[in-house]
């Protein structure tokens, strides 16, 4: 049984891959956060004689942590009695808090005492370049230490986003140097943490919520997040309009000082959702922003309601 927790999702996912490789003959089963975990455990008990080897990944969310003590004890009792070698559990909790100082929850406390635990925290800013060098090497690329340091100053402290940028650079040239970085990488300080917009453009539910909570916990205002989304939607509208005028990406970039990568993201997003949906979201965000500033709406509730509606979009 494993318990992986912390705020660095990339490192958690890497550890899951490592464990899965160790148990390569086990089928991976992801337990949906919205499912009844106790019913899931009951099914294991009832079908034990006919079951196959399974590596069961359980994401611990607020609903599970807030279960009544009686239900949590049922889960703990099952785990205590679980002597099935064909069932291995990986529990994951994404959290910004130091859970060793907050052991009030029965399940969390049990896992800390009985599972193989590992904490994965955001890496220190002065160590990002070392991870960049490791990631590049693992992908059969090359980057010098000085260029890795340069790259680390342009990217957010987010290994998921850093890896995506490295993939982009390596696809252009496996040897990453200063000229490649200058040509293809946007400056994080100018772009106000593009990782959040990257998640928005992909409509990645889990990542949007994770980055939203992370950014707010680090002191970023919801108003800034609204501005970032509005800016990206507006870029999409500009790109679509200029494409109709037969302008290419380089012309759009020069005319509106938009980074090429941002334009590419706009292309993908427009294709995914359509310009009419983007226009509707621009109007909706403008109204929300106005009503928040006028004191009509609560900032947090209004923004979360928008995110929920956005992520439920079906076209």
TrEMBL record:
It holds the Pfam family DNA_pol3_delta_C. It is an enzyme of class 2 (transferase). Transmembrane segments: none annotated. Gene3D superfamilies: 1.10.8.60, 1.20.272.10, P-loop containing nucleotide triphosphate hydrolases (3.40.50.300). Residues 191-310 form the DNA polymerase III delta subunit-like C-terminal domain. Residues 3-116 form the DNA polymerase III delta N-terminal domain. Keywords: DNA replication, DNA-directed DNA polymerase, Nucleotidyltransferase, Transferase. It catalyses: DNA(n) + a 2'-deoxyribonucleoside 5'-triphosphate = DNA(n+1) + diphosphate. Its EC number is 2.7.7.7. PANTHER family: DNA POLYMERASE III SUBUNIT DELTA. Belongs to the DNA polymerase HolA subunit family. This is DNA polymerase III subunit delta. It comes from Mesomycoplasma lagogenitalium.
């Amino acid at each position: 049984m494993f318990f992986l927790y912390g705020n660095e999702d990339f490192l958690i996912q890497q550890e899951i891959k490592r464990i899965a490789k160790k148990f390569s003959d086990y089928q991976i089963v992801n337990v949906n956060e919205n499912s009844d975990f106790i019913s899931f455990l009951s099914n294991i008990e009832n079908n034990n004689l006919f079951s196959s080897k399974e590596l069961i990944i359980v994401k611990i969310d607020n609903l599970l942590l807030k279960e009544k003590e009686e239900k949590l004890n049922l889960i703990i009792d099952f785990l205590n009695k679980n002597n099935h070698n064909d069932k291995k559990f990986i529990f994951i909790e994404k959290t910004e808090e130091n859970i060793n100082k907050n052991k009030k929850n029965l399940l969390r406390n049990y896992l800390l005492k009985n599972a193989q635990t590992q904490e994965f925290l955001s890496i220190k800013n002065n160590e990002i370049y070392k991870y960049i060098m490791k990631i590049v090497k693992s992908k059969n690329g090359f980057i010098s230490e000085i260029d890795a340091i340069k790259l680390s100053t342009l990217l957010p402290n987010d290994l998921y986003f850093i890896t995506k940028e490295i993939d982009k650079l390596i696809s252009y040239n496996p040897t990453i140097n200063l000229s490649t970085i200058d040509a293809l990488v946007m400056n994080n300080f100018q772009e106000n943490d593009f990782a959040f917009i990257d998640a928005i453009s992909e409509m990645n539910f889990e990542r949007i919520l994770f980055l939203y909570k992370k950014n707010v916990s680090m002191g970023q205002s919801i108003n800034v997040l609204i501005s970032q989304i509005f800016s990206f939607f507006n870029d999409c509208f500009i790109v679509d309009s200029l494409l109709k005028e037969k302008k290419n990406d380089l012309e759009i970039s020069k005319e509106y000082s938009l980074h090429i990568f941002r334009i590419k993201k706009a292309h993908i997003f427009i294709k995914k959702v359509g310009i009419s949906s983007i226009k509707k979201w621009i109007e909706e965000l403008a109204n929300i922003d106005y009503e928040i500033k006028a004191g009509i709406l609560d900032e947090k509730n209004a923004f979360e309601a928008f995110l929920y509606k956005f992520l439920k979009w079906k076209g």
